[in-house]
Structure to design on (477 residues):
């Protein structure tokens, strides 16, 4: 008589053990239906839980995310702080107490005022070096460059020194008299020198002022822009700068390389098993491979490879001007974000956390589908707000601004402020204002929020029912 069947999950063999010790143990491989082929398990987690093997790949992923955090902190406390401080100093000096609207923009409404501002700003570009609040050597490294942009014409570039800086106002005076005026751009480069015992640092700053015509209305939009910061070291680089620029990226590179090697070795195991299984069970290699590999493994390979490529690019081109490489900042941010998402899989360690993760994922997918269907209504309210109030109220003066205002009302942030601003400038009856804001507030806060709550409740019921069904018990809820 044979005892119950025993399944060895690691050798993929069905073993039948007889009760009589004298009988032969029988092994069957082709009669077996491998459960792992149809239920994609997380191999790292299963090995950790069942065999008590150290899960190096998860630990490496956690270490990489922590190194990303330290790298971001060092960059934030050095590069970003310097950039923001310079920008604040320049804006306060050149723009002073200029009046700003709700968007933080400054508008010039009169031609004489525009010409006078251009004249004053042109002179300030040359006197700024005497007022800059720094003990380091601060000098101007270029003359004033004035670029006149007109419609249908080539850009006109003029250069001014300190003696004739006031003549830049003549360009502004002639420009506003024509209908082709589009923008006037003023730029100057500055140089800051800092000396230590072993190094000399040269910081080049490019600052610009732009005066742009707004939609051919004769209104000038006045903006300042801190365009570029370059840092060059002469001599031995200080250790603290090397720490900020290189230590954490190199640490990320080494840890990620080890993690990627472990992931690749795991994929090699999957490939060998898939080849063997496909030959013995007469299925294609692709099906055998996809049956055996969890989807998280592909995502794991992707974000580890992305981190490796991004860090290598950074180390190859890293220099003190790292803040100027905006595309690399974007790539690093995306890489760190995607790598952080990779930790999501390890919520399986606790069933309660994994339940919350599944609820969040399924609810978000359903909510996104509902939000996509709500977009036409959203756009309809945007056009309605522009049509009703856009001509006389600054709150609804444009498409993108109206989208932001309605989105803020959706979160109940500026409901009363919006109502008061519209009423102050309104030339339409109050009942129209109240009806519009009341309808949008109730539609978003009432229907959308309650619908989202319903999605979450339905998802919870589904997951609880699936769990009861898994254990062969009826759902008592």
């Amino acid at each position: 008589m044979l005892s119950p069947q025993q399944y060895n999950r690691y050798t993929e063999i069905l073993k039948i053990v007889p009760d009589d010790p004298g009988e032969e143990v029988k092994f069957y491989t082709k009669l077996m239906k491998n459960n792992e082929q149809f239920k994609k398990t997380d191999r790292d987690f299963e090995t950790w839980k069942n065999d008590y093997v150290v899960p190096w790949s998860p630990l490496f992923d956690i270490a990489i995310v922590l190194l990303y955090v330290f790298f971001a902190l060092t960059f934030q406390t050095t590069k970003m702080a310097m950039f923001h401080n310079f920008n604040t100093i320049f804006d306060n000096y050149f723009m002073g107490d200029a009046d700003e609207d709700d968007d933080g923009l400054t508008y010039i409404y009169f031609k004489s005022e525009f010409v006078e501002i251009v004249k004053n700003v042109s002179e300030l570009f040359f006197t700024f070096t005497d007022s800059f609040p720094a003990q380091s050597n601060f000098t101007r490294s270029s003359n004033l460059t004035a670029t006149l942009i007109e419609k249908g014409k080539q850009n006109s570039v003029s250069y001014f020194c300190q003696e004739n800086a006031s003549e830049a106002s003549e360009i502004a005076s002639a420009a506003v008299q024509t209908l082709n005026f589009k923008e006037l751009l003023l730029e100057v480069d500055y140089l800051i020198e800092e000396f230590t015992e072993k190094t000399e640092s040269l910081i080049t700053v490019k600052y610009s002022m732009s005066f742009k015509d707004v939609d051919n209305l004769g209104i000038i939009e006045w903006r300042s822009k801190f365009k570029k910061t370059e840092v060059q070291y002469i001599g031995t680089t200080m250790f603290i700068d090397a720490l900020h620029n290189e230590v954490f990226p190199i640490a990320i590179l080494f840890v990620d390389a080890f993690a990627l090697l472990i992931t690749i070795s795991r994929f090699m195991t999957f490939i060998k098993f898939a080849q063997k299984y496909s030959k013995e069970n007469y299925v294609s290699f692709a099906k055998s491979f996809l049956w055996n590999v969890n989807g998280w493994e592909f995502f794991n390979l992707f974000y580890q490879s992305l981190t490796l490529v991004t860090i290598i690019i950074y180390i190859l081109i890293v220099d003190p001007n790292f803040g100027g490489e905006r595309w690399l900042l974007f790539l690093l941010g995306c890489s760190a974000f995607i790598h952080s998402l990779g930790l999501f899989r390890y919520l399986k360690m606790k069933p309660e956390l994994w339940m919350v993760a599944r609820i969040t994922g399924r609810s978000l997918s359903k909510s996104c589908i509902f939000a996509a269907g709500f977009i036409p209504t959203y756009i309809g309210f945007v056009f309605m707000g522009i049509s009703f109030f856009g001509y006389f109220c600054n709150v609804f003066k444009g498409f993108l601004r109206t989208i932001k205002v309605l989105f803020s009302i959706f979160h109940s942030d500026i409901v009363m402020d919006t109502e008061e601003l519209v009423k102050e400038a309104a030339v339409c009856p109050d009942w129209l204002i109240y009806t519009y804001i009341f309808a949008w507030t109730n539609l978003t806060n009432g229907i959308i929020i309650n619908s989202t709550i319903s999605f979450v409740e339905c998802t919870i019921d589904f997951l609880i029912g699936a769990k009861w069904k898994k254990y062969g018990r009826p759902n008592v809820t």
